[in-house]
Design goal:
Layout (H helix, E strand, L loop, with lengths): L1 E7 L5 H15 L6 E7 L13 H9 L16 H4 L2 E4 L2 H11 L7 E3 L13 H4 L2 H18 L3
Helix pairs in contact: 1-6
Bound molecules: 4-nitrophenyl phosphate.
4-nitrophenyl phosphate binds next to loops.
């Protein structure tokens, strides 16, 4: 089983979108049993009180027929480095923060999502740009490229 952790700053927009887009993608390919998939934050900003997916991010998932469950934002911790095979951030700042939390990427588990594509930029952060459609597209393209990278 391949264990994948998607990570962003707050775990209320990009990483839960990635979690559910990727779950939907592997489900449609009949690969659900091959994967264990979660998402977490690098910041504890949204974890002091139970925080669900940000409503505009939910709307874009609904619009694209992507199933999601009840979500509570969580911060990742050092133990996640052992628990997961792939720890996938959305932007350069996420990667820096992930490395700060885990200490050292000695098993090469940390990736930026769009690094699996030919266009190795950051996923557009909807928190600042407000364009959830574009973020959805970035994440979808990144998840497709990740599956291709895994030859699945
Ligand atoms: P996310 O979006 O990292 O994609 O979940 C954000 C959520 C919260 C904040 C920033 C980005 N914030 O500053 O609280």
């Amino acid at each position: 089983m391949i264990k994948v952790l998607f990570v962003c700053l707050g775990n209320i927009c990009r990483s839960p979108m990635a979690e559910y887009i990727f779950k939907d993608m592997v489900d449609k390919k009949g690969l659900s049993k091959e994967f264990y998939i979660e998402s977490k934050a690098t910041s504890s900003e949204n974890t002091y009180t139970p925080t669900d997916i940000y409503p505009p991010a939910k709307d874009i998932l609904i619009k694209n027929n992507i199933h999601f469950d009840k979500h509570v934002a969580r911060k990742m911790n050092k133990d996640d480095y052992e628990k997961f095979d792939y720890i996938i951030g959305m932007d350069d700042s996420n990667i820096k923060n992930i490395i700060r939390i885990v200490g050292n990427d000695y098993n090469n588990k940390i990736y930026k999502l769009l690094d699996f594509t030919n266009d190795k930029r950051d996923v557009l952060d909807p928190w600042y740009y407000g364009n959830f459609d574009k973020t959805f597209e970035d994440i979808k393209i990144g998840c497709e490229a990740f599956l291709k990278y895994l030859n699945m």
